[in-house]
Protein backbone atom coordinates (compact mmCIF):
# COMPACT_ATOMS: atom_id res chain seq x y z
CA UNK A 1 0.00 0.00 0.00
CA UNK A 2 1.37 3.42 -0.88
CA UNK A 3 0.33 5.23 2.29
CA UNK A 4 3.34 4.48 4.53
CA UNK A 5 5.71 5.67 1.81
CA UNK A 6 4.46 9.24 1.90
CA UNK A 7 4.41 9.03 5.69
CA UNK A 8 8.08 8.01 5.79
CA UNK A 9 8.97 10.75 3.33
CA UNK A 10 7.29 13.34 5.51
CA UNK A 11 8.55 12.24 8.90
CA UNK A 12 12.01 11.12 7.89
CA UNK A 13 13.66 8.16 9.58
CA UNK A 14 13.09 9.29 13.14
CA UNK A 15 9.28 9.30 13.04
CA UNK A 16 8.02 5.83 12.23
CA UNK A 17 4.72 6.08 14.08
CA UNK A 18 1.49 4.56 12.74
CA UNK A 19 -1.76 6.45 13.00
CA UNK A 20 -3.20 3.67 15.14
CA UNK A 21 -0.59 4.27 17.81
CA UNK A 22 -1.10 7.98 17.48
CA UNK A 23 -4.80 7.61 18.03
CA UNK A 24 -4.35 5.53 21.16
CA UNK A 25 -2.10 8.23 22.50
CA UNK A 26 -4.52 10.93 21.44
CA UNK A 27 -7.42 9.46 23.34
CA UNK A 28 -5.48 9.91 26.56
CA UNK A 29 -4.92 13.61 25.97
CA UNK A 30 -6.48 16.15 28.22
CA UNK A 31 -8.21 18.77 26.07
CA UNK A 32 -6.71 22.20 26.52
CA UNK A 33 -9.00 24.83 27.88
CA UNK A 34 -10.53 27.12 25.35
CA UNK A 35 -8.13 29.95 24.77
CA UNK A 36 -11.01 32.38 24.31
CA UNK A 37 -11.61 34.64 21.38
CA UNK A 38 -8.35 35.45 19.65
CA UNK A 39 -7.82 38.03 16.94
CA UNK A 40 -7.62 35.30 14.29
CA UNK A 41 -4.15 36.44 13.30
CA UNK A 42 -1.10 34.33 13.64
CA UNK A 43 0.99 35.74 10.85
CA UNK A 44 3.50 32.94 11.19
CA UNK A 45 4.20 30.07 8.89
CA UNK A 46 4.31 27.14 8.76
CA UNK A 47 0.87 26.63 10.25
CA UNK A 48 -1.82 23.95 10.24
CA UNK A 49 -5.46 24.12 11.35
CA UNK A 50 -8.40 21.76 11.61
CA UNK A 51 -12.09 22.42 12.03
CA UNK A 52 -12.06 19.76 14.77
CA UNK A 53 -11.75 21.12 18.30
CA UNK A 54 -11.61 17.79 20.17
CA UNK A 55 -8.68 15.78 21.54
CA UNK A 56 -8.28 13.88 18.29
CA UNK A 57 -8.09 17.14 16.34
CA UNK A 58 -5.35 18.29 18.70
CA UNK A 59 -3.52 14.97 18.41
CA UNK A 60 -3.74 15.16 14.61
CA UNK A 61 -2.01 18.56 14.54
CA UNK A 62 0.56 17.54 17.14
CA UNK A 63 1.32 14.42 15.16
CA UNK A 64 2.52 16.39 12.14
CA UNK A 65 3.77 19.61 13.68
CA UNK A 66 7.42 18.69 14.27
CA UNK A 67 7.87 17.51 10.70
CA UNK A 68 5.98 20.46 9.25
CA UNK A 69 8.10 22.87 11.31
CA UNK A 70 11.24 21.08 10.09
CA UNK A 71 10.35 21.71 6.45
CA UNK A 72 7.81 18.98 5.66
CA UNK A 73 5.24 19.70 2.98
CA UNK A 74 1.76 21.04 3.68
CA UNK A 75 0.40 18.30 1.43
CA UNK A 76 1.87 15.48 3.53
CA UNK A 77 0.88 17.23 6.74
CA UNK A 78 -2.79 17.56 5.86
CA UNK A 79 -2.98 13.94 4.70
CA UNK A 80 -1.37 12.47 7.80
CA UNK A 81 -3.34 14.70 10.18
CA UNK A 82 -6.59 13.76 8.44
CA UNK A 83 -5.69 10.06 8.66
CA UNK A 84 -5.53 10.39 12.45
CA UNK A 85 -9.04 11.82 12.54
CA UNK A 86 -10.43 9.30 10.03
CA UNK A 87 -9.34 6.48 12.36
CA UNK A 88 -11.08 7.79 15.48
CA UNK A 89 -13.90 5.30 16.20
CA UNK A 90 -15.63 7.83 18.45
CA UNK A 91 -15.98 10.36 15.65
CA UNK A 92 -19.35 9.72 14.05
CA UNK A 93 -18.89 12.21 11.22
CA UNK A 94 -15.65 11.09 9.56
CA UNK A 95 -14.10 7.82 8.37
CA UNK A 96 -14.24 4.73 10.60
CA UNK A 97 -17.27 4.94 12.90
CA UNK A 98 -18.98 7.58 10.74
CA UNK A 99 -22.76 7.32 10.67
CA UNK A 100 -24.17 5.39 7.71
CA UNK A 101 -26.87 6.10 5.14
CA UNK A 102 -30.47 5.01 5.62
CA UNK A 103 -29.60 1.46 4.54
CA UNK A 104 -26.88 1.20 7.20
CA UNK A 105 -24.02 1.56 4.71
CA UNK A 106 -21.18 4.00 5.43
CA UNK A 107 -20.44 6.04 2.30
CA UNK A 108 -17.49 8.42 2.61
CA UNK A 109 -16.59 11.59 0.68
CA UNK A 110 -13.22 13.35 0.62
CA UNK A 111 -11.21 15.85 -1.39
CA UNK A 112 -7.67 17.16 -1.45
CA UNK A 113 -6.12 20.16 -3.20
CA UNK A 114 -2.48 21.10 -3.68
CA UNK A 115 -1.98 24.85 -3.96
CA UNK A 116 1.52 24.47 -5.36
CA UNK A 117 0.46 22.53 -8.45
CA UNK A 118 -3.22 23.57 -8.86
CA UNK A 119 -3.98 19.87 -8.64
CA UNK A 120 -6.97 18.25 -6.94
CA UNK A 121 -8.47 14.83 -6.27
CA UNK A 122 -11.64 13.47 -4.70
CA UNK A 123 -13.67 10.38 -3.97
CA UNK A 124 -17.40 10.31 -3.37
CA UNK A 125 -19.65 7.64 -1.92
CA UNK A 126 -16.72 5.29 -1.36
CA UNK A 127 -17.47 2.26 0.87
CA UNK A 128 -15.30 0.02 3.09
CA UNK A 129 -12.11 2.12 2.91
CA UNK A 130 -10.89 3.82 6.10
CA UNK A 131 -8.83 6.60 4.51
CA UNK A 132 -10.81 8.30 1.74
CA UNK A 133 -8.50 11.32 1.93
CA UNK A 134 -5.51 9.17 0.96
CA UNK A 135 -7.48 7.66 -1.92
CA UNK A 136 -8.34 11.21 -3.02
CA UNK A 137 -4.63 12.01 -3.00
CA UNK A 138 -3.94 9.05 -5.26
CA UNK A 139 -6.71 10.17 -7.62
CA UNK A 140 -4.96 13.54 -7.71
CA UNK A 141 -1.45 12.20 -8.21
CA UNK A 142 -1.88 8.95 -10.13
CA UNK A 143 -4.68 9.84 -12.60
CA UNK A 144 -5.59 12.67 -14.92
CA UNK A 145 -9.03 12.89 -13.25
CA UNK A 146 -10.32 14.84 -10.29
CA UNK A 147 -13.10 12.64 -8.89
CA UNK A 148 -13.95 8.94 -8.69
CA UNK A 149 -17.24 7.73 -7.20
CA UNK A 150 -18.74 4.71 -5.47
CA UNK A 151 -17.65 1.29 -6.77
CA UNK A 152 -15.09 2.79 -9.14
CA UNK A 153 -13.46 4.68 -6.28
CA UNK A 154 -13.39 1.55 -4.14
CA UNK A 155 -11.87 -0.59 -6.90
CA UNK A 156 -9.27 2.12 -7.43
CA UNK A 157 -8.41 2.07 -3.70
CA UNK A 158 -8.22 -1.72 -3.63
CA UNK A 159 -5.85 -1.65 -6.61
CA UNK A 160 -3.43 0.41 -4.51
CA UNK A 161 -3.61 -2.06 -1.64
CA UNK A 162 -6.06 -0.36 0.68
CA UNK A 163 -7.81 -3.08 2.71
CA UNK A 164 -11.57 -3.52 2.49
CA UNK A 165 -12.89 -3.01 6.04
CA UNK A 166 -16.15 -2.75 7.96
CA UNK A 167 -16.51 0.94 8.81
CA UNK A 168 -19.34 0.44 11.29
CA UNK A 169 -18.47 0.40 14.99
CA UNK A 170 -20.71 -1.00 17.70
CA UNK A 171 -21.65 2.58 18.52
CA UNK A 172 -22.50 3.67 14.98
CA UNK A 173 -24.47 0.47 14.31
CA UNK A 174 -26.46 0.98 17.52
CA UNK A 175 -27.19 4.58 16.47
CA UNK A 176 -28.40 3.43 13.05
CA UNK A 177 -30.57 0.63 14.49
CA UNK A 178 -32.06 3.11 16.95
CA UNK A 179 -32.77 5.55 14.14
CA UNK A 180 -34.37 2.85 11.98
CA UNK A 181 -36.61 1.63 14.77
CA UNK A 182 -37.70 5.11 15.86
CA UNK A 183 -38.01 6.64 12.39
CA UNK A 184 -41.78 6.27 12.21
CA UNK A 185 -44.73 4.94 14.22
CA UNK A 186 -46.23 3.94 10.91
CA UNK A 187 -43.88 1.18 9.80
CA UNK A 188 -43.10 -2.38 10.83
CA UNK A 189 -39.84 -1.83 12.73
CA UNK A 190 -40.03 -2.29 16.51
CA UNK A 191 -42.20 -4.58 18.63
CA UNK A 192 -45.28 -6.17 16.98
CA UNK A 193 -48.28 -3.84 17.14
CA UNK A 194 -50.25 -6.11 19.45
CA UNK A 195 -47.40 -6.12 22.02
CA UNK A 196 -46.69 -2.38 22.09
CA UNK A 197 -47.11 -1.35 25.72
CA UNK A 198 -48.12 -4.86 26.71
CA UNK A 199 -47.28 -6.20 30.19
CA UNK A 200 -47.90 -9.59 31.74
CA UNK A 201 -49.53 -10.14 35.11
CA UNK A 202 -46.17 -9.47 36.82
CA UNK A 203 -45.75 -6.12 35.07
CA UNK A 204 -43.12 -7.39 32.66
CA UNK A 205 -43.00 -6.21 29.08
CA UNK A 206 -42.12 -8.30 26.05
CA UNK A 207 -38.90 -10.24 26.67
CA UNK A 208 -36.60 -8.17 24.49
CA UNK A 209 -37.85 -4.81 25.76
CA UNK A 210 -35.87 -5.05 28.99
CA UNK A 211 -32.25 -4.76 29.99
CA UNK A 212 -29.71 -3.81 27.40
CA UNK A 213 -32.24 -3.38 24.66
CA UNK A 214 -34.10 -0.67 26.56
CA UNK A 215 -30.80 1.10 27.22
CA UNK A 216 -29.92 0.79 23.54
CA UNK A 217 -33.19 2.20 22.29
CA UNK A 218 -33.14 5.00 24.81
CA UNK A 219 -29.50 5.95 24.18
CA UNK A 220 -28.21 9.48 23.63
CA UNK A 221 -29.06 11.33 20.47
CA UNK A 222 -26.28 11.14 17.92
CA UNK A 223 -25.15 14.01 15.72
CA UNK A 224 -26.66 14.13 12.28
CA UNK A 225 -23.84 15.61 10.27
CA UNK A 226 -20.25 16.68 10.56
CA UNK A 227 -17.03 16.76 8.58
CA UNK A 228 -13.38 17.62 9.06
CA UNK A 229 -11.27 20.18 7.24
CA UNK A 230 -7.48 20.28 7.59
CA UNK A 231 -5.60 23.20 5.97
CA UNK A 232 -1.89 24.01 6.09
CA UNK A 233 0.79 26.33 4.80
CA UNK A 234 4.36 25.06 4.95
CA UNK A 235 7.74 26.73 5.38
CA UNK A 236 8.07 27.22 1.60
CA UNK A 237 4.73 29.03 1.50
CA UNK A 238 2.93 26.17 -0.24
CA UNK A 239 -0.67 25.48 0.77
CA UNK A 240 -2.75 22.31 0.85
CA UNK A 241 -6.08 21.18 2.23
CA UNK A 242 -8.33 18.19 2.77
CA UNK A 243 -12.00 17.76 3.58
CA UNK A 244 -13.19 14.32 4.71
CA UNK A 245 -16.61 13.14 5.88
CA UNK A 246 -19.12 10.35 6.25
CA UNK A 247 -21.66 12.94 5.16
CA UNK A 248 -25.14 13.47 6.46
CA UNK A 249 -26.28 10.59 8.65
CA UNK A 250 -29.18 8.48 7.33
CA UNK A 251 -28.78 10.11 3.90
CA UNK A 252 -30.54 8.74 0.85
CA UNK A 253 -28.15 6.09 -0.54
CA UNK A 254 -25.95 7.68 -3.17
CA UNK A 255 -26.30 11.21 -1.81
CA UNK A 256 -23.08 13.17 -2.24
CA UNK A 257 -22.39 16.25 -0.15
CA UNK A 258 -20.10 19.20 -0.65
CA UNK A 259 -16.96 17.61 0.79
CA UNK A 260 -15.65 15.95 -2.38
CA UNK A 261 -16.58 18.87 -4.62
CA UNK A 262 -13.66 21.19 -5.29
CA UNK A 263 -14.83 24.76 -4.81
CA UNK A 264 -17.64 23.72 -2.45
CA UNK A 265 -16.19 21.70 0.47
CA UNK A 266 -12.58 22.70 -0.24
CA UNK A 267 -10.50 25.15 -2.23
CA UNK A 268 -6.79 25.96 -2.12
CA UNK A 269 -4.87 28.63 -4.02
CA UNK A 270 -1.18 29.19 -3.33
CA UNK A 271 -1.46 32.89 -4.24
CA UNK A 272 -4.15 33.52 -1.63
CA UNK A 273 -5.11 30.86 0.91
CA UNK A 274 -7.35 27.88 1.55
CA UNK A 275 -10.89 27.28 2.80
CA UNK A 276 -13.01 24.34 3.87
CA UNK A 277 -16.63 23.76 4.83
CA UNK A 278 -18.56 21.60 7.25
CA UNK A 279 -22.29 21.50 7.84
CA UNK A 280 -25.22 21.02 5.48
CA UNK A 281 -23.52 20.32 2.18
CA UNK A 282 -26.44 21.08 -0.07
CA UNK A 283 -26.06 24.79 0.66
CA UNK A 284 -22.29 24.71 0.37
CA UNK A 285 -22.63 23.18 -3.10
CA UNK A 286 -25.15 25.79 -4.28
CA UNK A 287 -23.02 28.66 -2.93
CA UNK A 288 -19.60 27.29 -4.06
CA UNK A 289 -18.57 28.39 -0.59
CA UNK A 290 -14.88 27.46 -0.39
CA UNK A 291 -14.14 29.05 -3.77
CA UNK A 292 -16.14 32.09 -2.66
CA UNK A 293 -14.11 32.40 0.57
CA UNK A 294 -10.80 32.22 -1.29
CA UNK A 295 -12.07 34.73 -3.83
CA UNK A 296 -13.04 37.12 -1.04
CA UNK A 297 -9.54 36.74 0.45
CA UNK A 298 -8.08 37.51 -2.97
CA UNK A 299 -10.13 40.72 -2.88
CA UNK A 300 -8.47 41.69 0.40
CA UNK A 301 -10.70 40.21 3.09
CA UNK A 302 -9.09 38.41 6.04
CA UNK A 303 -9.82 34.70 6.49
CA UNK A 304 -12.20 35.57 9.33
CA UNK A 305 -14.06 38.17 7.28
CA UNK A 306 -14.21 35.92 4.23
CA UNK A 307 -15.79 33.05 6.22
CA UNK A 308 -18.43 35.43 7.53
CA UNK A 309 -19.05 36.82 4.02
CA UNK A 310 -19.69 33.30 2.72
CA UNK A 311 -22.28 32.56 5.41
CA UNK A 312 -24.08 35.83 4.72
CA UNK A 313 -24.11 34.95 1.04
CA UNK A 314 -26.11 31.79 1.84
CA UNK A 315 -28.43 33.43 4.36
CA UNK A 316 -29.17 36.28 1.96
CA UNK A 317 -30.19 33.84 -0.78
CA UNK A 318 -32.88 32.31 1.42
CA UNK A 319 -33.94 35.74 2.66
CA UNK A 320 -34.37 36.85 -0.96
CA UNK A 321 -36.73 33.91 -1.55
CA UNK A 322 -38.67 35.03 1.51
CA UNK A 323 -37.80 31.99 3.60
CA UNK A 324 -36.62 32.27 7.20
CA UNK A 325 -34.13 29.41 6.92
CA UNK A 326 -30.55 29.07 8.17
CA UNK A 327 -29.20 25.70 7.10
CA UNK A 328 -26.16 25.53 9.40
CA UNK A 329 -22.62 25.66 8.06
CA UNK A 330 -19.20 26.18 9.60
CA UNK A 331 -16.38 27.55 7.45
CA UNK A 332 -12.64 27.68 8.20
CA UNK A 333 -9.94 29.49 6.24
CA UNK A 334 -6.26 30.37 6.28
CA UNK A 335 -4.19 32.67 4.11
CA UNK A 336 -0.63 32.36 2.88
CA UNK A 337 0.60 34.69 5.65
CA UNK A 338 -0.58 32.34 8.38
CA UNK A 339 -3.74 34.20 9.33
CA UNK A 340 -6.83 32.12 10.07
CA UNK A 341 -10.52 32.41 10.78
CA UNK A 342 -13.76 30.50 11.25
CA UNK A 343 -17.46 31.26 11.41
CA UNK A 344 -20.83 29.52 11.48
CA UNK A 345 -24.48 30.38 11.10
CA UNK A 346 -25.76 27.80 13.56
CA UNK A 347 -28.12 29.36 16.13
CA UNK A 348 -26.17 29.32 19.37
CA UNK A 349 -22.61 29.75 20.61
CA UNK A 350 -19.47 30.30 18.61
CA UNK A 351 -17.50 27.96 16.38
CA UNK A 352 -14.14 26.69 17.56
CA UNK A 353 -11.24 25.35 15.51
CA UNK A 354 -7.75 24.04 16.31
CA UNK A 355 -4.59 25.91 15.30
CA UNK A 356 -0.93 24.87 15.46
CA UNK A 357 2.02 27.10 14.61
CA UNK A 358 5.27 28.21 16.23
CA UNK A 359 3.23 29.57 19.15
CA UNK A 360 1.96 26.05 19.87
CA UNK A 361 -1.45 24.41 19.88
CA UNK A 362 -4.53 26.45 20.71
CA UNK A 363 -8.24 26.58 20.09
CA UNK A 364 -9.61 29.60 18.33
CA UNK A 365 -13.14 30.83 18.78
CA UNK A 366 -14.58 32.40 15.63
CA UNK A 367 -17.80 34.25 14.92
CA UNK A 368 -21.46 33.31 14.86
CA UNK A 369 -22.96 35.38 12.06
CA UNK A 370 -26.49 34.95 13.38
CA UNK A 371 -25.78 36.90 16.59
N1 LIG B 1 -20.68 18.73 4.83
C1 LIG B 1 -20.83 17.35 4.73
C2 LIG B 1 -22.01 16.93 4.01
O1 LIG B 1 -22.99 17.64 3.92
O2 LIG B 1 -22.01 15.83 3.50
Structure explained in plain terms:
33% of the residues lie in helices and 19% in strands. The termini are far apart. It has one domain: Glutamine Phosphoribosylpyrophosphate, subunit 1, domain 1 (4-Layer Sandwich). With 371 residues, the protein is an alpha+beta fold. The radius of gyration is 21 Å and the shape is globular. The strands form two sheets. Strands 4-3-2-6-5-1-11-12 form an eight-stranded mixed β-sheet. The protein has a five-stranded mixed β-sheet with strand order 7-8-9-10-13, with helices on one face. A hairpin with a 5-residue loop joins strand 5 and strand 6. The protein has eleven helices and 13 strands. Glycine binds next to strand 8.
Overall SS class: alpha+beta
Distance N terminus to C terminus? Answer: 48 Å
CATH structural architecture: 4-Layer Sandwich
The top level CATH class name: Alpha Beta
Amino acid sequence: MILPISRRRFFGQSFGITTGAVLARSLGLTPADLAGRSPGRSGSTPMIITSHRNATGQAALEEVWEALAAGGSALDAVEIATNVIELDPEDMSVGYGGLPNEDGVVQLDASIMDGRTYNAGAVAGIESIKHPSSVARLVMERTDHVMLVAEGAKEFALSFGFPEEDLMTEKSRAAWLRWRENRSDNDDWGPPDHLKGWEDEKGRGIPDAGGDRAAFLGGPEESTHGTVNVLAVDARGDLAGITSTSGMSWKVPGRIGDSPIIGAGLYVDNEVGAAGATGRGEDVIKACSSFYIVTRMREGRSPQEACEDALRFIDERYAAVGIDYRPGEKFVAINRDGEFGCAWNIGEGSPVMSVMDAAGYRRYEGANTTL
